[in-house]
Amino acid sequence: MRQALEKLEQEIKAVKRAGRLARGVLEEGSSVKEEAQELHAKFSALVEALSHLSQALDTHYASLEDDTKLEQALISLKRIKAKCATPLASLERASTAKEVLELLASLEQSVLDLEGVLASLKRTPRLKYSSHPQSHA
Question: Which fold, 2-123?
Fold first, then answer.
């Protein structure tokens, strides 16, 4: 589960960076299709990492007796994933900088929500072992 959490945190950093870069380019109105494709790829990777964490968390949750905090986190993760689906699909069809920026804003709000859920998970005593050992290669 620690790996899934670390991968998701890396993807969050990647989409934030991609969003800042895209916003700078899109405000000039250039490279709309290219930026939309880049954002779609980055946010798709984030959603995939979110799926992996959800699966790991679901497996962990199944091994415990009722843990309402974990259950609420799972529900929140599923909601965030669903909330990303529409703007992510729309990114592929966006044709103007304004459209891409609006979709980006929606996706960035989902990232903020996701960061809140992750912060809450890290404070969950039964998951502390999963998120803290900091062995970076």
Answer: Four Helix Bundle (Hemerythrin (Met), subunit A) (1.20.120)
